Every structure is written in C-alpha cells, then in structure tokens.
Write the structure tokens for this entry.
Amino acid sequence: MSGPAHELAIDRTFDAPLDAVWRAVVDHLPEWWCPRPWTSEIVALDWKSGGRFSITMHGPNGETHPGDGVLLEVVPGERFVFCNMLDADWNPQDAQPVGIVGMFEFADAGVGRTKFRSSARHWSEADRKAHADMGFEQGWGICADQLEEVARRLAATADA
C-alpha cells in the first residue's frame, strides 16, 4: 500500500484539460459523483474551505444514502478535501457509512490532459478494510471515469 496508512486511492490521467475537469467537478457534480444508475442530489454544497458538503445518493430501487460533512479545504483547480465525521458547525457526527477524509486532487499533465487522484483516508485499518470491501476501488473508479467523461464533453463544447 502506498501513501498514508489506512488510505485507499484511485489515480488516473484524464484526456481533458484541467479547466474542464475543474468545471466538471464544481458545476456538474451530480453527473459523476456516484456510479450510474445511482443519482446524486445536492442538499448543500458551499465550495469554500469550511463549507457544508451534503449529497444524497439515490439508488434505482428507491435506496437512499445521505452523506453530510464539511469541506476542509478547497483550492480551485487543485484540490478539495472533505470529512464526513464533522457537520457544518464542526461538531463530531457518526460516519456514513464509514468515516473518511476524502481528497480529490488535480494537476495539469500537459497537452490537454489532467492528472487526477481521489483518496479516502480512514481512522483505522478496520475502517479501510470495510471501505475496500464495500467496493471502493470499483465505485470510486467508476466515478473517476464519469468525471472524465463530463470533462471531455465540456472541453469539446468549449472548443466547438
């Protein structure tokens, strides 16, 4: 395992420029946040450090999985970091379904490409394993693919 202890991560290089990827992140989050056929509903999303981050995922059979937390850091065009163990007032709250610090990082990879990394840091090895067993690699990988798809569409539209 590379990176910090208790971390799961997805690394990709997107075939889309950084500005299109960042626009996809902040302006089109419901299109990529959870694997289709699931959908995402933004309850509250304040794109600033300390802002509320609340999204409900809806499954095809009526399932709902709310996720509420706080954006610990937002650096436009570079990264956003959130935690689901704190509410918008920085009060501790129960994990949904496992406590994480989620990080999404972006960097210009040249020639219209973007280096992408998403990671989930966990408080314990047991939490990391539970998240892995829930399908982290497949689920977050699908979301990364969907994010690239949205960014490529935005880049193509901007170039048209």
In short: The chain is about 25% helix and 35% strand. The domain at 7-35+72-159 is CATH 3.30.530.20 (Alpha-D-Glucose-1,6-Bisphosphate; Chain A, domain 4).
